[in-house]
Hints:
Strand content: under 5%
Largest sheet: 2 strands, antiparallel
Shape: globular
Helix content: over 70%
Structural class: mainly alpha
Amino acid sequence: MSSFSSKIGVLLAAAGSAVGLGSIWKFPYVVGENGGGAFIILYVACSLIFGLPLVMNDFLIGKLSGKSAYGAFRTLTGGNRWQWLSWMLLITVTLLSSFYFVVTGWCFYYMVEAAMGAFSGMDAEALTNFFDAFSGDTATMIGSAFVAILLTAAVLWFDVNKGIERLSKILMPLLFLMLIVMAIHMIFMDGGTTGLRFLFEPDFTKLTPKVILEAVGLSFFTLSVGLGILITYGSYMPKEQTLTQQSQEGDVVSTSIQMIVLVLFVSLLAGMIVFPAVFAFGFSPAEGPQLAFVTLPAVFQHMFSPSLTSVAFFALMCVAAITSTISLMEVMVAFVHEASADTKWPLNRHQSVIIVSVIQLITNTLCVLSMTGAVCGLMVMGKNLFDASNILCTNILIPIGAMATAVFTGWFVPKTRYQGPRTVSYLNLMMLRWIVPVVIFIIFLESMNVF
């Protein structure tokens, strides 16, 4: 079976899956909508208290079983009672990747347009009209998403260490460098310190129960839990034959902590890029999802080199997005590959990549057709497929997946299979059994507007 060749490869690939659009695109606008500094403190605390046990759990499920999301639960329990969870994780990543590939297509399209100077002299209203025209152009939207799918498939065509690991070792350091350079550039603009105060000076009067739950939910989203990604990557972790099981599980703990630190670092850097720029030119930080595609390009037009800054920012978005699409699609490829081994027609990796790519081309086409209105009737509960898949995954499927994997390990995995460092193991099991499922269930009820 394919595997990562080094611990740094595991860390960078896992961090890339978590960083993606969650940290670069979603994190800034959610922080902007929820008041800044106080929300940041909550987000960091929730990532360490609630996110860490889930990240460790997913890695351990994969590493101890040696299987992807398809076979891990069956291997650890010796039965098929939890196989429904495997299929639910597959459905979740399929729907979420349909949403992600469309947004990744936006990033590539905007990077090309920025390089051609298309945004030169545009204000926020003109950029809004530009985005509306683009999002209504069926052919361009489908073409942009197809480029993202084909680039992702090209990486996955190779073995894990030659494809995912090798590219992660290039893209993640590049991402960090681009973030740091852009953050320094934004901080030293006139008025940039106002954005930093918004980001780091807490105003606890803005905290409400809903904001607290929003912080927990964002930490789960940005850490890639409840999707099967870290389970799949955990199964690719190098198997150190000279180490005891306890030592190897201790290695999972350190990898999980390092990954969360990297995700928090990237998220904060993204905030240090966005908010100094937004405040320096008098825009609102609570612009929502359009912050990256309307507000920031408008801000860039007031800067020293609008075209260069716009290209750099959208190149940054592309790098972040492609690291996420790789991890999402890899879950599907590994699932198809592993599941086919139980049939009369086992598939190799290349065949699995082709099948998954075709599925993604179809689902993304349906998403775009629903968004642009090119085909009437592609609606779910009154929403187009793009919005419906985002809401269904974020508010329902990801919380259920995270809660179910916590319950699975906390209550159903034989304890002889889960023997990490004694203190860590005990605390983690208590969190997985009692605290994390309750917290996720509350978030789930809140997302369903139960209270």
